[in-house]
Specification:
five-stranded mixed β-sheet, 37% strand, alpha+beta, 2 helices, elongated
Length: 105
């Protein structure tokens, strides 16, 4: 049987874990660690002069696909880091169209 101080300690520890997990940037979307990489698996979904893209974070190992951008824009973004939250995306398209990205300095 646990004593009252142990129960309070466990409750406090659980509260601390929950608040830190919900308040931090768990998926690292605010970090300047994201890159655009070609997605050859879904290239049949995009029109000519457009590129199917994945957004990849090599630090965390996360990857999000089903994005597209014009070839010129994708070439400019090759090897350039950006924050996931700084992307401008056209709503209602599939794959989603990336219209602009604020790059990191």
């Amino acid at each position: 049987m646990t004593t009252k101080p142990t129960k309070h300690f466990l409750a406090l520890a659980m509260l601390l874990v929950v608040t830190t997990q919900t308040s931090c940037d768990f998926y690292r979307k605010k970090k300047c660690e994201w890159y655009m990489v070609p997605d050859f698996k879904h290239k049949s979904l995009v029109k000519p002069d457009w590129v199917s893209l994945c957004l990849r974070n090599y630090t965390s190992g996360k990857q999000v696909c089903l994005y597209q951008a014009h070839v010129d824009f994708a070439e400019r973004m090759n090897g350039v880091k950006f924050r996931f939250v700084d992307m401008k995306i056209e709503k209602g398209t599939h794959p989603r169209v990336i219209t602009d990205v604020k790059t990191c300095n």
